[in-house]
Amino acid sequence: MKVLITGASGQLGQALQDSAPGSCELLALDSRTLDISQADAVRPAVSRFAPSLIINAAAYTKVDQAETEPGRAHAVNAEGAANLARAAQGSGARLIHISTDFVFDGNKSTPYQPADQTNPLGVYGASKCEGEQQVQEITQSQALIIRTAWVYAAHGNNFVKTMLRLMAEREQLAVVSDQIGTPTSAHTLAQAIWRAASKPDLRGIYHWTDSGVASWYDFALAIQEEALALGLLDKAIPIRPIRTQDYPTPAKRPAYSVLDKTQSWADFDLAPLHWRVALRQVLQELKEQRDA
Ligand SMILES: NC(=O)c1ccc[n+]([C@@H]2O[C@H](COP(=O)([O-])OP(=O)(O)OC[C@H]3O[C@@H](n4cnc5c(N)ncnc54)[C@H](OP(=O)(O)O)[C@@H]3O)[C@@H](O)[C@H]2O)c1
Prior knowledge:
- The chain has helices at about 10-20, 40-50, 70-90, 125-140, 160-170, 185-195, 215-230, 260-265, 275-290; strands at about 1-5, 25-30, 55, 95-100, 145-150, 150, 175, 180, 185, 205, 215, 240.
- The protein is built from nine helices and twelve strands.
- It has a domain at about 1-155 and about 185-210 and about 260-275: Rossmann fold.
- Helix 3 packs parallel to helix 4.
- The strands form four sheets. Strands 2-1-3-4-5-10 form a six-stranded parallel sheet, sandwiched between helices. It has a two-stranded parallel ribbon with strand order 6-9.
- NADP nicotinamide-adenine-dinucleotide phosphate binds near residues 7, 36, 61 and 76.
């Protein structure tokens, strides 16, 4: 199977390449080799390679910066997604598009179902939400859209690596405890996407994250505990829970964004890892990188 991956140098783009089935012929393009916001670049790239599957892992992911760069966020997350959907439609390729828990407002207190009402709180979420809608419309709901959340990896910039740096530099930390979601390893997400790729009949919106639930505070505590156990950190520092209102950010974030995965567990035929187990694997990878 010929597979075109966009956003190849991102956390997910890299993880997709690392875990691709041997039977796939990959063309993995990063933002320099294919800017998905440029329709004139997307069309020829797709028709030249003629993939049977396109996985869109490219996105404008700077949630706070998006508040002052709405045009850029829209160009990549909405127009870029639409460009890929049109190219897929025109060439007969299947499209797997990745989206986010930030399409929801977080006012629920039970896991979000794929069909729940979207109501993004910020520019990033709104641009991703529009991307989903465009993909659905252009492909007449034939595309597979997978929403995920709180993604991290050994590769790239993310909460885990920021915490490890701050835990090594600082005497203490304060982390928000009133935003609840599910940390998700890019590696386990990539495995779920490849599993979904092997099931050609899947279409519509699905949710996938690692299993379990945490606040950013819980996540930070787990990072410290696991990193100490692996020898990635030398000493424990006090970590204090704070409220979102005590840590203002330019973009508002959903207070609760746990995604219901019942359908994907059944249809992908894949059991998820608990987020803490997946975290241990990524920290182990960081340790191996450090010791190499
Ligand atoms: N990270 C999270 O916590 C999270 C949570 C929920 C959902 N998601 C979704 O998961 C997917 C993968 O995210 P990720 O964590 O892998 O993000 P990431 O590490 O920021 O990777 C995104 C990649 O997209 C590339 N990109 C940006 N603009 C582009 C453009 N115009 N054309 C082509 N490529 C472009 C970036 O390249 P440059 O760096 O060169 O700009 C980057 O390599 C995205 O759809 C994201 O919305 C992520």
